[in-house]
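TL;DR need structure tokens for one chain.
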Amino acid sequence: MKDHYKGTYVGKWKVSLLQRPVVLGMALIGTASIIPDDAFAKSAGCTNWSYTGSTTAVSSVNSAHEVNETPKIKLTNNNGYGLPYVFTYTDIANGNQTVTRNGTVNANDTVTATITIPRDTTSGRLSLVVNNGNAPILSIELSCDEAVEPVPGTTEKSQSTTSSTVVSSVSRSQTTVISQNIGARLSAVGTSAGTATGGSTSGGGSVGNSGDNDSNADFFYDPAYHRSTSSSLTEDNNGLRRIAMMGSFDSSTGQGMHLLGLGPTDQGNSGGASGIDGRSAFTTTTPFTVWGHGSFTSVDNDYVNGTTDNRYNGDVWGYNIGLDYRFTDALIAGVSLGYNDTDLTTSFNNGSYKETGWVVSPYVIYRPMENLTITGEAGYGMGDIDVTRDNGAVSGNTESDMWYAAFTASYKVRPMDTLPASLTSSLALIAARKTVDGYTESDGTNNATIRSNTRQIKPSIEAAYDFNPTQHLTVTPFLETGLIYDFTDEINNDKTAFN
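>> reply
TL;DR here they are.
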């Protein structure tokens, strides 16, 4: 799965029992070459990183390297099974700073990986180790490109944590979380008393499996944002997230109102809001509704294509609290305040991206006719970002702002009045823009301002069926499929995905 669309899980979490690797040590020394006489000539270390042959381990001697040189490995695997590899650069002269690229060369496949030297050094070492079984057939090519004079006002995108791909993914993920939370209010508005909310409009996480680089399909979840209920939300250090996920409430339905200390009478029904007339009784009391909802989305991008490395993973979670007013039975308008927290591991540069932010979102819900719901929402938010790269050796912080607008129309029909099944078709249009301010990292590297634009159309259809195991419990399994099309700033050069 590419993040947002397609990428690959190729060997990322694959664990296999390997025999002790056969290690062939080889020191790279004095390969003959002519060094150009200019400011960006190859260093001794870059010049010596040159080899073509078959081996399972190679290491250079401690040599000088220049910032922005690009050592490269090309691995061709003729075995019938995958071979994990680790490509490492260690700056001996600067506290053993380490940059690592690792992955798996699949059977009968070729992989290319690069490392960009982060700073000048008098003593840097490159190494490559391949874990193999018996009698590996692995061809390797080692090369190194000299540093290229930077263009004024640009940054080294392959090493910057705030790359355009990461910022685009964060923007889409944050917008998704906000829309999921507001979608929970939409679900409550479209629900009669005593019936299920139904479908996926309430947001939250569902579980899916990724495909490979060429697959556009996913199962039961938005391939733009890999939601997973089995990962970080169950870890001990994420108690705040778990509380947020459990802290959903809606005063119009009585859901979760005990969290606010409201008794049965306050909730609009002497029998409690869980009674069959709880929602209708409360809505006749006041046109105001207070609600809150939390949700999350996970992202995993394993896209590597030649020298393009966009690997990162993590999640975004958020909580919205809102207040709206029912002008008529067909029209509701309100505003919500949302908090979001983003935590990504950027594998492509051995770094991290962390952001916390707030967003204000007015919204309107209009039901011009039965079963047809039109929703419009917009928002503006600001965030604080902390980034690292090269295993924490370089850090930085900056700020961001984001605006978004979304329009959704959905129509729900019941094919048979006597059957508790429904079909809901919907069309969503989303526009967003996220700006990450320019900043200077701890090593003096300047990163320019980055902007990500989102323009998406998302048609979908959902089938749902209500089961009532008890009088007060409704279970609604659903199946949804849809298309996601990006008009601008597609991620991993891919405009289309299926949900």
